[in-house]
Amino acid sequence: MRRIAILLLWFAWRAVVAQQAEPVTPAAEPVTPVAEPDKSYLLPALEIITFDFLLNRYNRRFSGSTDYDVSAASIRRNLRGPWVVDNDPFKVNQFAHPYQGSLYHGAGRATGLGYWEAAALTFAGSAWWEITGEKTPPSRNDQIASGIAGSFLGEPLFRMAHLALKDGSSVPRAWREWVATAISPAVGLNRLAFGNRFDSAFSDHDPAYYGRVHLGYTHVTQHAFNTSGSFKQNMAQADFAIDYGLPGQPGYTYHRPFDYFNLQALFSSANGVENLSTRGLLYGADYAIGDNYRGIWGLYGNYDYLAPQIFHVSTTALSLGTTGQWWVSKTVALQGTALAGLGYAAASNTTRAVADDTEYHYGMASRAGLALRVISGTRASVDVSARYVSLGHITSPSSGRDEISRIDSAFTWRIQGPHAIGVNYLWSHRSASYPAIGSRRQTLGTVGIYYTLLSQQRFGAVDWRASAGD
Description:
Layout: H1 2-21, H2 42-62, H3 72-80, H4 90-110, H5 115-132, H6 140-147, H7 149-165, H8 176-183, H9 185-194, E1 209-225, E2 234-244, E3 261-268, E4 272-289, E5 293-306, E6 311-327, E7 332-349, E8 361-376, E9 380-391, E10 401-416, E11 419-434, E12 438-454, H10 465-468
Antiparallel strand pairs: 1-2, 1-12, 2-3, 3-4, 4-5, 5-6, 6-7, 7-8, 8-9, 9-10, 10-11, 11-12
């Protein structure tokens, strides 16, 4: 027994020594699974239904029209169809409806939905309004304006609101929530209601962007049109533009719709909203040519609303094209976009009282656009853009034609920091011919001088050359 006890003590002592000699491996910490970004399909649907109900109540109370006296009978009738083309005021159909659709899209994006999910929700929300928001027959042109153009406008507004909220934003911290709400009301209201619940659903991946604001005075220098009605020769104008996701940013990708977009909004004392336009890359890829050129190409979505004092035109289109930047020399860069495509367009005279119904018309249209910017170091830039819309030739060449052209050119000189001055020449032209009205040629040219506030001192030039050489 004594020998057995001695052996047991010896084995115990060896076990203790071995345990002390071996390194102690810490226990593995439990792996916390990464939570999926939060999103909701129910919340934006309820927000859209509530918004449409309140908008109907407001219009019914204050519009003076019986179009909003919706009933169960009118809803049943609209569900059966048919869908028609309406001739409501141009600003209602081609500006208010796309903006209404942008609110639907923003509600989806602000509650965690991806672009295509929010776009589908926007299309459904537009159909819901057409059937339940008005007692008039549902409108095909309004469905395109709200359901499709609404997403082409809503996505840039959502991403701009996100920029305003980011750490490092040029917007003062105390104003960020208010600015984001003004840009995209759905973003601000959902943050107020749910805090940062949906913040992780979207990351902008730090795009290269360039924004500028023109504030100034414009004078009409050329006018030629054979329609009656007065126009203003002197105007105050505010012009905002942003290029987001400029090619050449190291590490930036274009896997999602609108990872690149351009938005421009021009407000005039003569006619309110004169220009609201967006173009965004829906599907495409980036590419490089040599060391000095970077670009993207693919399918773009376009929404244009142009309303100078002499005519109106609006287009919702899909275009093929490219956007790129070329370093011409060490300090001079050339940026540009070229697009060509097809879409659904509307055109009219500015004064319904002098316009025949045939002059307020819809149809398939070809669209082309070109934008160029020459950047000289950090001191100056020259911008030239041109747009062309041809409406009528595609669907019914015998009934008439409508061709609209617009050229916008500007020279900007930086004084100090973000402060600059600029001059601008803007030329708008319409040539139309229809059996009921004959031929119309309308031209308006303006010259403006501006104070300009720049977001970046390099006017948006992206310099990848240092990183490319590493």
